[in-house]
Structures are given as C-alpha cells and as structure tokens.
Specification:
- By secondary structure, the protein is an alpha+beta fold.
- Helix content is about 15%, strand content about 50%.
- Strands 1-2-3-7-8-13-14-17 form an 8-stranded antiparallel barrel. Strands 4-6-9-12-15-16 form a 6-stranded antiparallel β-sheet. A 3-stranded antiparallel β-sheet has the order 5-10-11, with no helix packed on it.
- It is elongated.
- The protein starts with a helix and ends with a strand.
Length: about 250
C-alpha cells in the first residue's frame, strides 16, 4: 500500500511538471491579460509567448479628453471700419482610441526579463479636435454679412476661417498606421499569476496635418504662432510612450 502511494505521488509530480515544461512556450499555450496606464492613456490587452525569447501582444489604448487651451490673434484680411477684434481663445481636445500589435524580444530569455519591442499602432487619423468662439466676430457677421469669410485666426503656420456663427473649427490628423519601437522590463506572461511591466518607446506619427471642413489646409503663413497647441502641431512628429502595466496569466 505504501509503495502504491509512492507511485501515485510520483505520477502526480510527473503530470504536474513535465507537461508544463513541454508546453511552457508555443502560440496560445499560455495567455496573459494586462492593464496599464501611461502617455497613450488607459490600455488593456492580451499576450501569448512564442518562444523563450519572443512574446506577441495586441491591445487597445483609450486616451481621455485632454484639453489644451491657447490665445490666438484674430486677423482681418479686409479692413472693417470701427471694429477692433480681440484675441481668440481656442481649445484643443486630444481624446482618441488606438489599437496596437507588438512583438517583444527578450535577449536573455528566461534568465533576465529586459526586452526590446517593435510593432505598430493604428486607429482613426484624427488626433484631436480644436474649436474657438468669438462673440465679436459673431456680432460683426450678423450686422455686416458681406464681410463673411474675411476674418480668420492662425494656428502655427495654418490659417483657420470663422463661420457665420463666430466659430472656428478644425481637427488635427496623422497617419492611421504608426510604427512603434521601445524597450522595457518585465514579462507580459508572468511566471506567477501577477506581475509588473515598465516600458519606454516612441510612436512615429509623421507630420501633423490641419483640416477644416474635411479639407486639408496648406501651411501658408510665414509667422508661426507660439501657443501650446501650435507647439504640439509643430514639434510632435514622434509621440513618446511611457507605460506602467499590471500583468496576469489566465491560461
């Protein structure tokens, strides 16, 4: 009887450990789920190991409505007697949703969880919306409709026209497909049930484009405005990514 118990224990140990090491790696043999926060907003995703050195992941990133406000000058292409226009308060909203697919490479394999990562992000081309309202322009257009279309504001090198209600509206667009590279520390399929992961990277968005009424606006102005939103449009061709992630193994 004692000998039988020993054989049962040995069999349980063998069944518990041998398959685990045999199926430790391989597409979808294990699946991890992760949730994180960072410069791309709130992120959730799934991951699976391919080999000891490779992990494949896919996820979604939701950026809440971060707002940027600027004071821009109001320009009049045709002189309007008796009217002195003030500056315009323009507001940008950077809310957006993106998806990503990435491949993480661990040069040290199981021995060290530092990794390099490459892949791409994709989503809607609209990076953010912008809007401003001037009661002075609205009043002027109401009293003198013949001046409609001669009043504008500028954002960086771009000229935006007011509509007849005194609003100026537009949106900022980038490429739908955006390559990504980065590095970090931590696995998406933790050895235990829960783990942590840190990542730094950059998303290549290319030059931002300004649209108004679904038409791209050409950069025609020589003097750039120097507000916060203008600086974003002019400088941010590569989007920096920082992410802290809580990882878990569900399979």
């Amino acid at each position: 009887m004692c000998r039988m118990k020993k054989w049962i224990v040995c069999l349980v140990v063998a069944c518990g450990f041998a398959p685990a090491s045999a199926q430790e790696y391989g597409l979808f043999n294990h699946v991890g789920i992760n949730a994180g926060v960072g410069s791309e907003g709130i992120s959730v995703g799934l991951a699976t190991p391919i080999t000891e050195y490779l992990e494949l992941s896919a996820g979604v990133n939701i950026m809440p409505g971060i707002k940027i406000k600027d004071d821009e000058s109001i320009n009049v292409s045709t002189p309007i007697p008796g009217y002195s226009l003030k500056t315009l308060k323009i507001e940008g909203n950077l809310a957006r949703t993106t998806f990503d697919v990435k491949l993480s490479v661990y040069p040290g394999g199981d021995s060290f969880p530092m990794y390099l990562v490459g892949g791409f992000s994709f989503g809607g081309e609209k990076l953010g919306k912008l809007e401003g309202f001037s009661p002075e322009v609205a009043q002027l257009y109401q009293e003198f409709p013949q001046y409609a279309g001669v009043i504008s504001t500028h954002l960086d090198e771009y000229e935006l026209r007011f509509d007849r209600q005194g609003y100026v509206k537009g949106d900022v667009r980038v490429k739908k497909f955006r390559p990504y590279v980065g590095f970090g520390f931590g696995r998406q399929i933790p050895k235990n049930r829960i783990g942590f992961r840190f990542e730094l990277g950059c998303q290549f968005m290319g030059k931002m484009k300004i649209y108004q009424d679904d038409q791209e606006i050409s950069a025609t102005l020589k003097d750039k405005s120097d507000g916060d939103f203008s600086k974003v449009i002019d400088k941010l061709k590569v989007y920096p990514v920082l992410r802290l992630t809580l990882t878990g193994r569900i399979l």
